[in-house]
Design goal:
The chain is mainly beta. Helices cover 0% and strands 47% of the residues. The chain folds into 2 domains: 78 residues, no CATH class; 96 residues, Sandwich (Immunoglobulin-like).
């Protein structure tokens, strides 16, 4: 994410919280530039996302001492926020939408891809889900989702940077549904 800060050395806390519990992981990065844009990233790989309801929370120390006065000394800007949660499913909810009418495994996009693509699936009900990737020899090369998911539309990113070019299969399995699709990795 890009941050414009009026001061340098200001801590920005990024933490993972569970909907029903305390913070599970915290990491802090300090701004290093005053009065200009800088790119800041947080490594959340140690967070161990385990719950569909994990939430990423960002906390800025906006005040040096006391309350801000609305001047430029207390003005912050954020731009190009990108959350890359490789292999972690993200749920898409649009108010007013009902649960999907049936199970569906969509074609990955983009396809062909290099090196990453996204895979979307729909669940009409709360389900145990397994989403796996296989090479054409039938060897499993990745598990993208393994757990319980609420009804709705879910998207998973698949990064195949460490795999060879070629055709791969991905399969969505639940207790009552299974579907397989093809995708092409071109390097």
């Amino acid at each position: 994410m890009k941050v414009w800060s009026p001061r340098e050395g200001v801590p920005i806390l990024m933490k993972v919280e569970n909907q029903n519990g305390p913070a599970e992981y915290e990491t802090i990065r300090n701004t290093t530039v005053a009065g200009d844009w800088e790119e800041i990233t947080w490594d959340m790989s140690g967070a161990g996302f385990t719950n569909e309801w994990d939430v990423i929370v960002m906390i800025f120390d906006f005040h040096e001492n006391g309350q801000g006065d609305g001047s430029e000394n207390f003005t912050w800007y954020i731009d190009d926020l990108e959350v890359n949660v490789e292999g972690i499913p993200t749920s898409v909810y649009e108010p007013g939408n009902e649960a999907p009418e049936g199970f569906k495994l969509s074609q990955n996009y983009p396809n062909p891809f290099n090196p990453a693509t996204q895979i979307q699936f729909q669940l009409p009900e709360h389900s145990e889900v397994m989403l796996e990737v296989f090479n054409l020899s039938g060897q499993r090369v990745a598990v993208l989702a393994n757990g319980t998911f609420q009804a709705g539309t879910h998207t998973v990113m698949f990064d195949a940077a460490n795999l060879a070019s070629g055709m791969y299969l991905y399969r969505l399995s639940t207790n009552s549904f299974s579907q397989t699709q093809k995708m092409m990795l071109v390097k």
